[in-house]
Amino acid sequence: MSGANSFKFVMLPPQTEITRDWGRRLAETVPEARVVLAEDAETAQREIVDAEAAFGWLNPALLAAGKKLRWLQAPQAAPAAGYYFPELIDSDLAVTNFREIFNDHISAHILSFVLAFARGLHVYIPQQLRREWKKPTEDHGVVHLPEATALIVGLGGIGAETARLLAAFGVTVLATDARRETVPEGVAELHKPEALDDLLPRADFVILTVPHTPATEGFFNASRFARMKTSAFFINIGRGMTTKLDDLVAALNAGQIAGAALDVYEIEPLPADHPLWTMPNVLMTPHMAGYGPYLNDRRFQIMADNCKAFAAGRELRNRVNKATWF
User: Which of 33, 114, 118, 196 shows its CA 20 to 30 Å from the CA of 154?
Assistant: First the structure.
């Protein structure tokens, strides 16, 4: 480093009003960090040469030039495919991300989907738009949550908070996760991902919170929809590339599952002529489940915490396994 605890921290382009504000705040709150805002690619290429840390999207040319780089803060919780390119994965560079900032917002969104299906809102909202008064018999159209089972695929921060909320409604929660070892509040059973196919037939709600990684790309497909109950509902708020939409449409048309709720899609924006738009048992939101207050404050806090930890030689927060992208 250039001093006992000091280091150069390059914020890579493009810059926004938010990132410029972060740069000013970091310089004030973490004096050990010499913050450089690179407004363009030429500046980034020049400034990365003697930088120990960086924020943003790194490309192979910047990585090759950054001989002193030891830490990269990713700008998202799960950056899009291409962020973790082979040279970055093979390097010794530590990467951290912004996971955990959406836990409350996204778990509330998931719960809204579960409650909507449980109380038949996917039926009654279209009826309202048609000004149609039509009631089912008293014992139909409701999922009694204390007798229901949810399977959460991916028990990170979002999945764990969702489990806690579901358990408060009496739902039995099963979960799979590749990394978690301890069972959080509200989870009845925790399994490794290899147990997914055996767990699917038990679930009334199958909830995907997993990121897009080499292991999850397209992993929810026709064979997995076929293993679900015909009365079960599928919910995806993780990443769109985890689910084959053609297979989902086919499963819905065949009555293999009862319905689906999606916030993320294999193709975004979803084309206007896609059949999901007009399917009666589908709820959709436009990739906004994470929306809510305080997100930029939370992003800044993770970056500030990591700058302080980096200067002090402590463990970084939200460190990523680069080979799995998360």
Answer: 118
